[in-house]
Amino acid sequence: MIKLVGLIPLLPLIGFVIIGLFGKKLSKSIVGLVGSGVIFGSFALALAIFFELKGGTQKEFTIDLFTWISAGKLSIPFSFLIDPLSSLFLLIITGIGFLIHLYSIGYMSHDEGFARFFAYLNLFIFFMLLLVLGSNYLIMFVGWEGVGLCSYLLIGFWFKNTAYNNAAKKAFIMNRIGDLGFLMGIILIFITFGSISYHEVFMQANSYSSGTPVLTVIALLLFVGAMGKSAQLPLYTWLPDAMAGPTPVSALIHAATMVTAGIYMIARSNILYSLSPVAMQTVAIVGACTALFAATIGLAQNDIKKVLAYSTVSQLGYMFLALGVGAYTGAVFHVMTHAFFKALLFLGAGSVIHAMGGEQDMRKMGGLKKYIPITHLTFLIGTLAIVGFPGFSGFFSKDEILAHAYENNKLLWVLGILTAAMTTFYMFRLYFLTFKGTFRGTHDQEHHLHESPKSMTIPLVILSMLAVVGGLIGIPEVLGGKHFLEEFLKPVFADSSSRIIFHLPESTEYMLMIVAVAVMATFLYSAYTVYVKNKTLPAAEGEELQPLHKLVYNKYWIDEIYETIITKPLNFISEALHKVVDNQIVDGIVNGIGYLVNWTSSTIRLAQTGNIGFYVFVMVISIVLILFTRLM
Amino acid sequence: MKALILLSSLGVIALLAEIFSFKKLIYPIVLLGLVLAFILNMFDWDTNQLYFKMMQTDNYAIAFTSLIIVISFLWFIMAEGFFKEESNQSDHFALVLFALVGAVIMVSYTNMAMLFLGIEILSIPMYILAGSNKSDVLSNEAAFKYLIMGAFATGFLLFGITLIYGATGSFDLTEIATVVSTNTAISSIFYVGVLLMLIGMSFKVSAAPFHFWAPDVYQGAPTVITAFMATIVKTAAFAAFLKLFHTTFSSLGETWMHIVWVMAALTLLVGNITAAIQTSTKRMLAYSSVAHAGYMLLALLANNSFSNSAILFYATAYSIASIATFCIVSIVANAKGSDVVDSFNGLAKSNPLLAFVMTIALLSLAGIPPTAGFFAKYYIFTSAFTAGNAGLVLIAIIASLVGVYYYFRIIIAMFFKENTNNQPLEVTINHKLLLIVIAVAIILLGLFPESIISLL
Amino acid sequence: MIITYMFYLLSFLAIMFGLMVVLSKNPVHSVLYLVLTFFAIAGHYVLLNAQFLAAVHIIVYAGAIMVLFLYIIMMLNLNKEAEPHKSLWIKASAAVAAGSLLVVLVASIKGTVAITPSNEFNPNIGLIENLGQTLFKDYLLPFEVSSVLLLAAMVGAVMLAKKSIK
Amino acid sequence: MITLLLIFFPLIAALLLLSVKSEQAKNIAIAAAVAEFVIAIFALTQFQYNASIQFEVNYDWIKSVGISFHVGIDGISMLMVLLTSFLVPIIILTSINTHYKNANYFYALILAMQMALIGVFVSLDGFLFYVFWELALIPIYFICLLWGGENSAKITFKFFVYTLAGSLFMLGGLIYLYLHTAGLHSFNISALYAAGRSLDFVQQGYVFWAMFIAFAIKMPIFPFHTWQPDTYTVAPTQGTMMLSGIMLKMGTYGIIRWLLPIAPLGVEHWAYVAIALSVIGIVYASCIAIVQKDFKRLIAYSSIAHVGLISAGILAINVQGMQGAMVQMLSHGVNVVGLFFIVDIIQKRTNTREIATLGGIRNVNPQFAVLFLIVLLGSVALPLTNGFVGEFLLLNGVFQFNAWMTAFAGLSVILGAVYMLRSYQSIMLGETNLITSSFAPLSGNEKLVLVILSAAIIVFGIYPKPLLDIAAPAVNQLIEGVQIALVK
Amino acid sequence: MSIIQTIPIEWYLFLSTVLFAIGVFGVLFRRNAIIIFMSIELMLNAVNLLLVAFSSYLSDSKGQVFVFFIMAVAAAEVAVGLAILSMVYRNTNSPDINNLNKLKW
What we know:
- By secondary structure, chain C is mainly α.
- Helix content of chain C is 75%, strand content 0%.
- Chain C folds into two domains: 1-81, NADH-ubiquinone/plastoquinone oxidoreductase chain 6, subunit NuoJ (Four Helix Bundle (Hemerythrin (Met), subunit A)), CATH 1.20.120; 124-166.
- Chain C contains six helices and no strands.
- In chain E, helix 2 (9-29) packs antiparallel against helix 3 and helix 3 runs antiparallel to helix 4 (62-92).
C-alpha cells in the first residue's frame, strides 16, 4: 500500500486537471462527484497507509519518484516520506478535505464558479499533501507555496470584488514574507548539512551540541516561515481578511489544514528546535502572545467568521506555544482536534450564513436555534470542543499543552489559561448571539431561514462526532488513557524527547486540569450572563465605544499601523526611487553625458570662427606651445 | 614610378584633349589609365626599386599608391558630374590627375625635396579645385582659406626641413637616419626641425590644433572635391607623415611622441564632439574626417609593426566609406537643395538603395562590425595598446561613441523621419553600381581584412 | 671685417624693410618694401657666395613675383589704405603670438651644438656649374616633377582667372 | 558542421526574406525559425553529456593577427542555443496577428539577430565573440527604431550608444588580454583564458571591469540599466521579446563563458562590489516596478530584478549559483516572452497598457486569465514553475557567498509578488469597464503560444533535470577550473 | 675669405628666424589678403636665406638647389593665390579677409 503513496497527491491533481480543463462542460454534479471522489480516494489510501504503518514495524518509508533539482552536491529528489507524522496529517487533510468537499457541493451549488471552486480545492489538497509528504524541505516548500497560491486563488474566489482581491493579495504577500525566511532556512540547512532531506539533516543535527548558533539561526528562519503561514504575530493580519473566501475555504484552508503547516514544519524539524533553546523560547513566546492577542481581538468582533478567524489565530498560537515548550505531540494533537472542531465551527458558520442568505454580522442574527437545529447542535459541540469542555476533544489537547507550558514556564501557562478564558468567552458570545435570543435580522432574512441541505449537514455531523471523540486518541495517562497519539508519533519525536524531558507530578496535572475547567466554566457563565441573561448586544456600527473596547474592536489598528509603517513607506520609497533616483539621478547622469556632449559641442564649435586670422593665431600659439615643450 | 609617369601623361593628355577636341573620350581614357596604372604599379610589387635616390617603390609605396589609384578610380566614378561641366572639363581632369601625381610622390619619396614637391603638387591643384565652383562665394572662401593656411603651414614645414638640413647636411631620408643613428651630438636645431615638420605634416592631415582649415574648406569646396580631399589627400598625407616619422624619425620618439599623443587626443575629441551638433552633413563629415585623422594618429604614435598596415587598412576603410557617403550626400543635396541632416528624412522609403549603402558606410565610419571600419578601429586600437597607449585608446573609445551619435543622426533621419520634401532623386546607373560595389567592399573588407593587413 | 659690417647692414635692412612690409598701410608701399627686403636678402646671398642664386632671386622675386603683386593690386584697384580698423586686441594678440614664436624659436636654436661641416670649405658651390651638376644629376627627378607643379599652377590659375562661360 | 548550420541557416533565411514579398514573409520566417529549432534539437540528440566542446569548427580567419573562426558547443552553449532557437519561432508566432509594414525586412532582421545571437553563444574566439556581440545589436536597433512606438528614435539611440559603450570597453579588455597571450598573439578562447590567468589580480581587475561593464549594461544591472525600461517599452513586442528573452542572456552568458574563466582573481576581488550592485538592482528595480503604471514598463523593471539575481548567482562562483543561472536564463527567457506577449495581447485589444485603466478582463476571458496567471506564477517563481528552480539555486549560490546579501536579494521574492499580483489584480480582476468589456477572445495562435509557454513553465518547473543535465558537466568543469585558478 | 668663416652660423639662424617671425607677424597682423601673401613670401625667403647659409656653411650645393624648388613653389602659390584673390574679388569686391568668414561653426 505504501508504494501507492504517490497516488494520494496524484488523485487530487488528476481531479484538478479534469475539472480545470473540462469543468465548464461538465455538469455540477459530475464536478462535485469527481472533486470529492478523488479526495475520498486519497483518504482511503491514506487510511490504508495509516493502518499499515500503525501495524508494521518499519515506521519510515521513503518513496523516490525522480530527481528534481541537482547542481553539484545539491541533489533534491522528488520523493515522499511516510512516517507517523505525515500519515497522521494525510488523514487529517484528506479526511477533513473530503468532508469539506462534500459540504461544498451544497454550499457552492448556486455559484457560477462551482467547477473552478472544486478545481482550486483539489489543487489545494494536492499541494497540501505534497507539503506533508515531501521527504525534504524543498518539497515541503513546494507544497508550502502551492497552498499559498491556492489560498490566494480561493480567497479571491469572487474576483469581481476588490476587497476580496486585496485580501487575497495580502494573504499571498504576507505568506511570501514568511516564505522568504523559510527559503533562507532551507538554503542554510543545505549549506550547513550538505543536504536538505529530513533524514540526512536530522541525523547530522543530532550530533550537534545544543545551542549551536547555526541551528538557532536555521530554526528561527524556519519559524519565520511558520509565522507567515500559520498567521503568528506579526504576520497574522492576512488570516482574518482571508475570510473573504467562501466559507468551506475558511474551514479547510484557513482553519484545518494550511495554517497548521507551520506546526507541521516545526514538529517535523523538532530536533533542530530541541537543539536550540533560544528558538524554542522564541516560538513559545510568539505563540503565547499570538494566542492571547488574537483572543482579545476575538472578544469584540461582530462578524461570525472574523471571530472564528481570530480564534484560529489564537489557537494556532496555542499550538506554537506547545511546540515552544517541547510538547510536540501536544501540538500535533491540538492540530488534529482543532482541525475537527474548527472545521466544524466554520462549516457551521457557513451553514448559518447560508441560512441567512450571506449575512455574516452576528448583530443581525439571534435565535437561530429553532430554524437550523442540526447546525445549532453541531455548532454547540464545536464550541464546547474549542473551549475545552471536559470530555470534548479540545479539552485533552489543550490540557496537554497547558501542562507542558506549566512545567516549562509558569508565565506561559498563565497566558495560556488567560487565552483559554477569553476563548470560552468569545466562543460562547458567538454561540449565544447567534443561536439564542430572538432573531434580529430583517423580515426577508427570517423568511429565508432554512436548514442546509444534506451534503452540508452530513459533514457537520461527522465533524461534530470527531470533535467529540477526537480527543480519545490522546487521553493523558493521568486520566487513565494510553495516549495513543504519543505512542504513534514516538519515532518522529524520539530524538527530541530524549532531550526534553517532561515530568509533572500527577497532582499538579490534576490541579491544572481543574483550574482550566474552572476558568472555562467561569467565563462560560459570564458570557451567559452578559448575552443571554442581560441580552446585551454588541454596539452597532458607528456607536461610540469605550477606549479599550474601541482598541480591541479595531484590532489594535494593526492593519492601519502596517499600512503606515510598511505599505506607505514602501510606496513612498518606490516612488522616490523611480522619480528621483532612477529618473533624475541614474538616468540623469546618462542623459547628462549626452547633454554634456551637446553642450561641449556647441561650445567648442564656437572656436571655429571662420576667421583666418584667428585660425592662424591658434596655429601659432600651438606651435609656440609645442616648441616650448622642447625647451623644457 | 610607372604609375607616376602614366598619371602625369594622363594629365597632359587631358590638357591636349581640349586642343585636339576629343574631350568626350577623356573620361574613359582616364579610367582606363587608372586601371593601367594600378596594374603597372602592382607589377612592381616586391621589386623595391630606388629612383635617383628620390623615390622608392617599396611595398609600402606600392600599397599606398594602389590604394590611392583605387580610391581615385572610385572617386572618378562618383565625380562623374563634376567632369561634365563643359568649359573647364579638361582643366578639372588635369588638375585632379596632377594632384594624384603629387599623392603618388608623397607615398614614395625618399628625399625631403620630393616630399615638399609632392605636398605642393597635391596641394596646389586642391587649392584650385576647392575654388572650382567659381561663382560660389563659399567655394571661393574655401579656396582662399585653404591656400593661405596651406602656404603658411608650408612655411613651417620648409623651416623644419631647412633646420634638419642644417643639422645633418642632407635632404635624403636614409642619410638623415644614418646621421641620427651615428652622430650622438646632433645639433639641437635638428629637433626643432623635426617638430616643425611634425607641425607641417599635422596641418596636412588636419590634426588638432591645426585642423581649423579643414571643416571650412571641406564645407565650402564642391562636394566631390571634398570627397577627394577627405580620402586621397588624407591618405597620401598620412602615408607621407607615417613614412617620415616611422622610418627617419622613429628613433626620436621622445621628441615627438608626447606631442602627437596630445594632438591625437585633441583631434579625436574635437573632431567628434564638434561634429555632434552639426546640421550640415558635409560639415559633419568634415569634422568626422578630422576625427578619423585622430584614429590614424594613434597608429602613427604607436610606431610599431602594426602601424603601417593599420594606417593602410584604416585609410582604405575610411576612404571607401567616405566616397560612398559623399556620393550620397551630393546626390541628396543636389536634389533637395541643401545638405542638412533633415534632407535625408525618409530616404529609406524614397530610395532604399541609397539609404542602405549610406547606412553601411556610416556604420563603417562609426566602427561597427561587420564593416571594414570596425576592423580598422580594432586594428588601430590593438596597435596603440601594444605601444602602451591605453589612455589614448580610452579616449578614442569615448570619442567613437560620440561618433556613433552623429552618424546615427543621419541613419535615424533616413529611416525614421518622415520625408517632407518630395524631390525625386536621380541616381545614375554608374552611381548605383559604385554604391553597391562599395557596400559589398565594406562588408567584405570587414569580414576578410587579412588581404590588406598582410600586405605590409 | 668689412664683410661683417656688410652682414650687419644687410641684416638690419632686411629686418627693417621686412617690418615695413608688414606695417605700411598702403599695399603698394608694402610691395616696394618687400622688393627692398629681397634686395637685402640678395645681398646676403652674394655674401654667402651664392651669386647665381642671388641673380635668380632678384629676377624671380623682384622681377616676376612682385610685378605680379603690383599688377594685381593695380588691377583690383587696391592702392589705397582701405584696410578696416583692427581692434587693439587683434594687434596685441598678433604681436604677442609672433613675439613668443620668435622667442621660442630663438631660445630653442640658441643652445645649438656647433654644426661641424663634413666637407672641406668650398667657396665655389654657388657657381652655376656646381648647381647645375647637382640639379640635373641628383635632383633631376624633383626638377622634372616641379614641371608638373608649374603646369598645374598654370592650368589652375588660368582656370580660376578666366570668366566662366555661362 | 552543425554549428555552422546553426549560425548561418538563419542568415540565409534572412537574406531570402529580403527578396520575398511582405505578405509571404511571415510564413517563411516561421518555417525558417522552426527549421532552426529542429536543427538545434537534432544537435541536442547528437550532443554528448560531457564537459567537452562538441561540433567544433575551427578555421583560420584573420591569420596574421591570430583570429580564427572558432565555434563549438558545450553544455552551456547548448542550453543557450536551445533557448534561442526555441524562442525565436515563438516570437515570430506572436506576431501573426500584427501586420507590420515591410514585414519581410522585419523578419529578416529578427532572423539576422538570431544568427548573431547563436554566434555569440557558440563563439570560441574572443574576436569572433565580439563581432557577433556587436552584430546582434544592429538588427535589434533597427527593429526597435523602425517598428517601435512613440519617440523610438531617441530611446533606441540611447540604447544603442549605451550598449555600444559597454561593448567598446569589452573590446578594450579583449585587446588587453590578447596582447598578453603567449607567443604569437591569439584570440583563441584557451589562449585568452591562459592570458587572463597569468595576470595578477590588479590587472585582472581591469579586465574584470572592462568586461563586466559591457555585460552589466547588456543585462542590465543597476546602475547601468536606464536604457532598458524605455527601450523595452518603446520597442515592438517582438523586439522587446528578443531583447529581454534572449539578448540580455548575452550578458550573463558572457560572464560565464568569458569573464569568470579569464579573470577569476579579478572576479573574486571585485565580487563584493559586483554582487552588491546586482543585489541592489534586484530590490531597486522591484521597488520601482511596484509604482509603474505602464504594464510593459513594469515587466521591464521586473526583468532587471530577475537578471540581477542571475548575475549575482554567477559571480558567487559556485555550482549551485551557476546552474541556477543556467536554468534561470532559460526560465526568464520563457517567462518574460510570455509576459510581453500578454502585454501585447492586452494592448492590441484595449489600446492601452495603463494598468489602472484596465480591469475585469478575467470576467470576459477566463482562459486568458489562467494562462496569464501561469506565466505570472513562473515569473514570481512559484515552486513547480520553471522560475523557482533557478531562483532557488541562485539564492543558494549567493547565500554561499554572503547570507545578508541573499536575504536582501530575497526581498524580491516578496516584492515580486507585490507588483505582479497588484498588476494582475488591476488588469484581470474586478469589474469590467468600458475598455475591457469587449475584450476579444484569444486567437488560435495566441492560445498556441501561451499554451506552449505555459507548458514549458510547468514542465521545466516540475522536471528541470534535462536542462540541468545538459549544462552540468560543463558548469562543473568551469567552476572547478576557476576554483583551481583561485587557489593558486 | 667668406662671410661664413667670420660670421657664426647662429647669426644667420637668428636673422632668418627674425625674418620668419616678421612674416608670421604679418600674417597675423594684417587683414589685407595681398599683404598676407607678401608676408608668406617673406617667411619663405627667410627659409631660403637660411638654406643658402647652411649650404654655404656646409659647402653643399643641395641647399641652394632646394631654394630653386622653393622659388618655383612660391611662384606657383603666388600665381594661384592671386588668381583666387581676383576670383574672390570678383565675387565680393573686397580683398578684406574678414569678409571671408561665411564658413564657420
